[in-house]
Amino acid sequence: MTPPGGRRPDQGTVESLYPFLYAGTSDPDAVLDQVRASTVAKIAEIAELRQTVADRDAGRLAECAAAAAARFQAGGRLFAFGNGGSATDAAQLATLFLHPGAGGAGANWPPLPAFGLANDTSVLTALANDIGVDVLFARQLAAFGTSRDIAVGLSTSGNSANLVRAFDEAARRGMLTIGLAGYEGGKMAELDSIDYLFVAPSSSVHRIQEAQTTTYHVLWELTVAAYQQARS
Amino acid sequence: MTEGPTGVVPGGPDASPAAGLFELRSAPTSALADQAVAIANACHAMAVRFHRGGKLIVFGTGGAAADAQHVAVEFVHPVIVGKRALPAISLTTDVATVTGVAEEDGMAGIFAHQLRYLAAPEDIALGISADGDNESVRAGLATARAGGLLTVALAGGDGGAIAKEGTVAHVLTAPASDPRIVKELQVTTYHVLWELVHVFFEQPGVLDPEVVA
Question: Could you state, in order of their start, the residue ranges of all structural domains in chain A?
């Protein structure tokens, strides 16, 4: 059961997580203990979720990376899209390919062409005003996408209508299509238009986003490694 | 091609490289728990500022610019229904100003300039840097501090220059050297920041500075 859109009540309410705050206590140590324990619990939760994703999807991530590397090899480009927090993940994924930076595992790796489709406020507001938010990404893919390219859509709910439209457009154009979703995948899990769907099985939007960040970082690292290998 | 430990179909893709990359996250994630007290203290101080009518101003460069925007949308439009909107802006979305300042005064001034003219003393400045050495973030935090803002930094590794200088009120580190893993820990950190700010903010009793030191 997943409502449309990404907004929903969190499983544990704030009150159940922090009973001391609601019991009218003014004991500062008790309050601090409570919030500290909650932080530690969340960290354990994300560690477990990452492990689940790794156990389920490590093989498919490698396969997906090989397919993406082949697209780049053929001159393709990557287009990343999502709404809200996922728009910032799309921006991060695009800049990761376009400007890997000097630090860490990807030092001196080649930049690859990638676009964040939530970056241009002129295009987004024009489309939203003239047509509606459902076409924000599909319309841009229609303008740019070719059969050599890669489309990556990120959603926590898996239900965003503008992602569903974007994947339809991308598949129609023969793009390699990659989806990241949470919960049980939502509508995205029902689509034939997504070649590789990676689901972070959690009901917390925050933990889903954290696991997705690791998923696309790993996907980037494997993709560039495969691309390098193919060129050497 | 060698066989990975998990999820391998014979003749299928090798799962071990991906599994190995996920495993690299385990120890740093556990170590993040050491930051729990520092995170709680920062959240309490931030809640006090929101209570006084302050806004949150977030900034970073490269991938951290995307994080700054994520933090801003998190506060302005919470994903959890029923949480009130709190005022927050990121300093990388005004591309005209950012590139204008960078061209005329250099990169180091892109956040400091905006803070000088957009910030009020009751505000909160949150700088994000993967290694803690980023010059524009440090300059932004210095300007914020001079303006009386509460200063908070998410600084990766050992906190770099930001931690060494010791002038930022709350430095939250992310114990990893790979900038990608640092980012992942910082995403968890700012999600927790948002949640705990609301926990404190909804309890005016604990916003008295005397109650929680």
Answer: 57-231
